[in-house]
Specification:
single chain, mainly alpha, rod-shaped
Length: 167
């Protein structure tokens, strides 16, 4: 098929020269101009979008650090609560031990005091009996008009009288 284009038909020499110039221009654009354009585009993207991505990365890292710190704080709080609980139990045990020891000391002091009171009461009763006996003998001697010490000592009359139970 052959078409006759008339005056619009291309001259083969001019066609080859035009194509050579086109390929030369495309080569120059591809080797020199397009890499520069790509570098400029990458720099502009880095200046705008890259900063945003870096800021998000830094924010994510800061959140991770914060979460780790919060986890560590939570662990420290848990440990502090455990230590407080342990020392509260120790304190309660120490209070119970001190209370038990105080109770033992109180019981011992009460027992000792009661024994002393009983001994003092017994000694006072003995002393009182002796004094009452002496006073009774002296009074009997005044009533009779003669000393009755010898008779009372010999018979121990006063002691027998005071020793009998009161009904």
């Amino acid at each position: 098929m052959h078409f006759e284009l008339g005056p619009l038909g291309p001259d083969p020499g001019m066609l080859v020269l035009g194509l050579a110039q086109l390929f030369l221009l495309m080569f120059a654009l591809g080797v020199v101009l397009l890499p520069r354009i790509e570098r400029m585009r990458a720099q502009r993207w880095d200046a705008t979008e890259g900063r945003t991505e870096r800021a998000e990365a830094v924010r994510a890292e800061a959140e991770a650090t914060r979460d780790a710190a919060l986890d560590e704080i939570a662990g420290a709080r848990h440990e502090a609560a455990r230590i407080r609980q342990e020392y509260a139990e120790r304190g309660a045990a120490a209070i119970a031990a001190a209370r038990a020891e105080g109770t033992r000391d109180r019981d011992r002091l009460l027992t000792t005091g009661r024994a002393r009171i009983a001994a003092s009461r017994s000694a006072a009763a003995d002393r009182l009996r002796q004094d009452v006996g002496d006073l009774a003998v002296a009074l009997a001697g005044r009533v009779v008009g003669e000393p009755v010490h010898a008779v009372a000592a010999e018979r121990r009359t006063v002691e027998r009288f005071l020793a009998r139970p009161l009904d």
